[in-house]
Amino acid sequence: MAQRTIRGMAENGKTYVYLNSEEIGNKFLQMAEHEGFTFDDGVKPTGRHYSDMMAVNSDGTINYVGAIGRMAVGSGKAKRVDFEKYINEEQG
Predict the structure, then answer these.
(1) What counts of helices (H) and strands (E) characterise the chain?
(2) For 63-80, what is the mean pLDDT?
(3) Helical ranges in the chain per DSSP H
(4) Beta strands at 80-82 and 15-18: parallel, antiparallel or unpaired
(5) Residue 19 · residue 52 · CB < 8 Å
């Protein structure tokens, strides 16, 4: 079965991604860049540091998550994915 992608996680709209370590955060940025994602201003993902929570958007952009996004995730009103679990889950 195909490897899970960041683009696949965002195809139904904005998804908030939890990154629990520097290793996982850097892997996320590298994968996002490989899949063609950029920040809104065109900067490549590896051109910036990761945060413990990032957002991926169906338009191929990523962004940092502010207070409103964190409240939406905390209240369960926003889609949140633990990136480490997402990429390590058994396929099929």
Answers:
(1) 4, 5
(2) 95
(3) 6-10, 22-34, 67-74, 83-88
(4) parallel
(5) yes
The residue among 57, 16, 18 whose CA lies nearest residue 40 is 57
Q: Which two tokens stand for residue 79?
A: 């889609």
pLDDT of residue 2: 60
Cα(71)–Cα(74) distance, integer angstroms = 5
Residue 92 has pLDDT above 50, yes or no: no
Is pLDDT of 73 > 80? Answer: yes
* Side-chain half-sphere exposure of 63, counting CA atoms within 13 A: 14
How much is the pLDDT for 23? 97
